[in-house]
Amino acid sequence: MPWWSWVIIWAALALALLAMLAFMAFRLFRKGIALLDELGILASKMELLESEADELGLQREQLAILAGTRYTRERRARVRASAMERRAARHDARIARAKALTKVDASSREWFKAR
Q1: Can you give the residue ranges of every domain in the chain?
Q2: Is residue 57 left, alpha or beta, with left meaning phi > 0 and alpha meaning psi from -120 to 50?
Q3: 3-state secondary structure 44-106
Q4: Which whole-number Å values give the CA distances from 26 to 36, 61, 68, 101, in the listed order?
């Protein structure tokens, strides 16, 4: 193969690489523009939600790192207490169901039917 054929091959490869990079950059640019549009929509929705929350008087929970340790411990204790109450209620319901299932009066049952 003559030397100029290698130059043509490498030039074609370099042009193909540049074309691919330009295409990928264009796709990335379009995706970035679409992302900015979606972020604008999200910002408008968040603004609407914050205004509704302000009208309703809802308060955000304070971040634990910004709140004091006492407040954070009290909040965590409340969460744990409510979880324990829910767990105890489920346990009591299971126990009541188990007792209802095991307390069957055998004398009131009709075991065999005469045909």
Answers
A1: 1-60, 61-100
A2: left
A3: HHHHHHHHHHHHHCCCCCCCCCCCCHHHHHHHHHHHHHHHHHHHHHHHHHHHHHHHHHHCCCH
A4: 15, 43, 49, 68
Enumerate residues 6+ apart whose C-beta is below 8 A from 75.
61, 64, 67
Q: Measured between alpha carbons, how far is 28 from 26 in angstroms, rounded to an integer?
A: 5
Report if pTM > 0.90.
no
The predicted-structure confidence for 17-54, as pLDDT tens digits, reads as follows 999 999 999 999 999 999 999 999 999 999 998 888 77
Two tokens at 91?
């346990």
Sign of CA dihedral 95, 96, 100, 101: negative
| Residue 83 one-letter amino acid | A
Alpha carbon distance 104, 100 (integer Å): 7
Pair of tokens at residue 56: 């309703």
Q: What is the DSSP letter of 115?
A: -
Q: Which two tokens stand for residue 53?
A: 């929350």
